[in-house]
Design a protein that fits this description.
Oligomer: single chain
Strand order of the largest sheet: 4-5-6-7-8-9
Structural class: alpha/beta
Distance between the termini: 12 Å
Number of helices: 15
């Protein structure tokens, strides 16, 4: 109805790219490295007419037009996967700084329409921390994105603890975004192309999150917040079995590194988004397991289409209060996105 009040919509997993990033991917694609990350992007970038290229590089009129036509007020932007994590440490660190500067410039041009998550290079944890502090303190970004493993290593490993410590101290969430499994684990996923969104992304990113839980980092960093897309990468559906089996493992002494059941950390330290999961039954389950305060709406633009994502949450069988929290209220709180008046979306 035309006289109904506008529901503020903040989309919380919206990808962008910079030309230098794509130049780096093209160079890797011409090498002999057969990583699925490299093969995927080289296949796309060889076709200059692929719609993803222009959509990812655009932080202006076309993106905002898509938002306006679908009633989206704000996109929370993040550098598209695998970000800088497939480059050497120096290249990755320099590109992270460049990408964050470009992101801050885009937000400055459209402060009512964009917010952003900073990228960093886990390959150099000390420099990553410096960039995290700059991104929050100088650039005013709202958190961080990491594309899961880096060279097969995960954030629970002690070498990365300075990154977790910095995120907790800065009170800024880390969004763990999917990428293909590492070479040591991807073999059975390759021949039928199961390594990407059809299954492999959730398996890999859910593993990363569970490693964080069972390593005990949330006892060491109890205020650390992690964001998972795609309705929690499968973990909310598995909470009973995770809790049951973890108790057995801790009783027999093989796992004593963490104090609480996995589901308790999931509710205390994690938020999830709806990106790429426009299906009401998973949303209903996640509401029961995690509660409405731990779920945020996302499109996964431009990989998913905005109209479907809006229609999904508009038609979800939830209360209006839950809808408003999932659409915007939780993102405002988690990422410090101001509750500005809707711009061009009413």
């Amino acid at each position: 109805m035309a006289d109904e009040p506008h529901v503020r919509r903040i989309a919380t997993e919206e990808a962008f790219a910079i030309p230098e990033q794509f130049d780096g991917y093209r160079a890797l694609g011409r090498s002999t490295w057969s990583s699925p990350d490299v093969v995927f992007w080289y296949r796309i970038l060889r076709n200059s007419e692929n719609r993803l290229i222009d959509a990812l590089l655009d932080l202006g009129d076309s993106r905002i037009a898509d938002m306006d036509s679908n009633g989206v007020d704000v996109q929370l932007l993040l550098l598209t996967s695998p970000g800088v994590q497939i480059f050497d440490a120096d290249t990755a660190s320099e590109m992270a700084e460049l990408a964050n500067d470009r992101l801050a410039e885009a937000i400055a041009r459209h402060p009512d329409r964009y917010a952003g998550l900073a990228t960093f290079a886990p390959q150099d944890p000390a420099r990553a921390v410096q960039e995290m502090e700059r991104a929050i303190g100088e650039l005013g970004l709202g958190g961080f994105v990491v594309n899961s493993h880096t060279e097969g290593e995960y954030l629970d490993q002690e070498k990365f603890w300075p990154i977790l410590e910095a995120a907790e101290a800065l009170d800024a969430p880390i969004y763990i975004h999917p990428r293909p499994l590492p070479e040591t684990a991807i073999g059975a996923y390759l021949d039928q192309e199961l390594w990407a969104g059809i299954w492999g992304y959730a398996a890999e990113t859910g593993l990363h999150a569970l490693r964080l839980i069972t390593s005990g980092v949330f006892d060491r960093f109890p205020k650390l917040r992690i964001v998972l897309g795609h309705m929690g990468e499968g973990l909310p559906y598995f909470v009973y079995r995770m809790d049951y089996m973890s108790r057995i493992l801790r009783q027999i002494g093989s796992q004593k590194r963490y104090e609480l059941d996995p589901s308790e950390y999931l509710r205390r330290n994690f938020l999830i988004t709806t990106s790429g999961m426009n299906h009401h039954p998973p949303l209903e389950l996640c509401l029961k397991v995690l509660g409405a305060d731990n779920i945020m709406w996302a499109i996964d633009y431009p990989y998913q289409q905005t109209p479907e994502c809006v229609a999904f949450l508009d038609s979800a069988p939830i209360t209006q209060d839950e809808r408003e929290r999932i659409y915007a209220g939780n993102a405002e709180r988690a990422f410090g996105i101001g509750a500005r008046a809707a711009a061009g979306s009413s």
